[in-house]
Amino acid sequence: MPQNRRPHGPTRRALIAGGAAAAVAAGAAACTATGASTVNSGPTIPPAEGKVQLTYWAWLKDLQKVCDVFNASQDRIQVDANWIPSGDSGGYAKILSAVAAGGGPDIAQVELRQIPEAALSGSLIDLSRYGAAEHEGLFDPSAWSQVKVQDQIWGIPQDTGPSAFFYNREVLEGELGQTPPATWDEFKELAGVGTEAGKKILSLDPSDGSVMNMWAMQKGANWYQPQDGGWIVSMADDASLQVAEYWDGMIAEGLVGTSFAPFSAPWMAACGSGDVFGYVGGSWADALIEGVPGGSGKWAVAPMPRWDDGYASGMLGGSSAAVMANSKHPAEALEFLIWMCTDPAGIDAMIENSGIGWSPAKDYIGAVREKPSEFSSGQNYNTEVIAAMAAGQNLDWVWSPVTQRANAALGDGMNAAVTGTKKLVDVLPEVQDKVVEIMRKIGLDVEVAR
């Protein structure tokens, strides 16, 4: 099977060249932060002549310890980190309200999936105007593709979430006598073996629709395509509906759990007892899975199951560090971010102190991740598995400018699917209609793919 399958039709680069910048401009005109109307069109702000103090808002834990490593390396730029709630828990509201009022931080954490929406609000500085493109070669292509639109760069990738299959080796290989599934058909067969033994291969969060993005992008779908000054939306294409039909079957046949979310207390207990023995999701899950009671030495990691076509992996999660529209020091902010997200000292500090997901750097995954994991059965899974998952991404995937609302609608649809009131194959067209309506209401030119 090919590592990367390119879908037929225009590539992401061609589509973006056809008018993504115009799409961003149209959205920004509908909702613009104070001062942002000129921040990306007027003169650039030159580097300061003296010392600079930067503020950085994020929900990463102990981020100040990362900043302290940078601060100690020189005396020209100093960075102060302030913790805020995660984006969906009030962080974005806090950031955008501050920027709209003319204030806010120099730098803020913005999830990769939220970049188009934040850019459309006029809250971000286009870092290409400050030479960010010169550093592209330092970054993993799958990370860089998430922050770039045409020649515009709306943030610096901080971590990503290439997905894999995490599993309890003692249950899967020992009790059940099986091997990790290479394909989704094999995954379903294994789920059946587990169900017959009174176990579940995984448990879906009954209200989280974001996994549908991961499933679809791996299959080769591209739900949001910027083109000709607007967008083409295709959430109900053949690839997406095939994936939806697959999971409809898994749910209807009772092959996956749907009672509790991954990483919740009930999930941890079920994994500890072996009643749930797997998880498919972002690489950052490794740190959370280490919280499974009695799990040390029992777990392992395998590649994400594959389709006959499509890509090696989908992406779940990941963030950028974006420079906000009211920053007086974008050049210095960019200098710090390039250090933090590519320099080994920065990567190691983020892993050690903040528990970031997969490194955004092209050639450095982090010193600790180059070593075998005691928890995961002595496996060096980062180099053996996750690196290949990161290299096998769908680089054509583009997030929509209304991702938060789209995922909320997908979450409602997921809940309806697990309760048996709807099927995912019907949810996708319904959510597509909602997304198109929302995008048109904020002034975007939108077409539905035929």
From TrEMBL:
Q: What is the lineage of its organism?
A: Bacteria, Bacillati, Actinomycetota, Actinomycetes, Micrococcales
Keywords, comma-separated and alphabetical: Cell membrane, Lipoprotein, Membrane, Palmitate, Signal
One matching Pfam family: SBP_bac_1
Protein name in the entry: Putative solute-binding lipoprotein
- Supply the source organism for this entry: Brachybacterium nesterenkovii
**Family annotation (InterPro entries):** Bact_solute-bd_prot1, SBP, TAT_signal
Q: Which SUPFAM superfamilies match?
A: Periplasmic binding protein-like II
Q: Does the keyword Transmembrane helix apply?
A: no
Q: Keyword rRNA-binding: yes or no?
A: no
The leader peptide range reads: 1-22
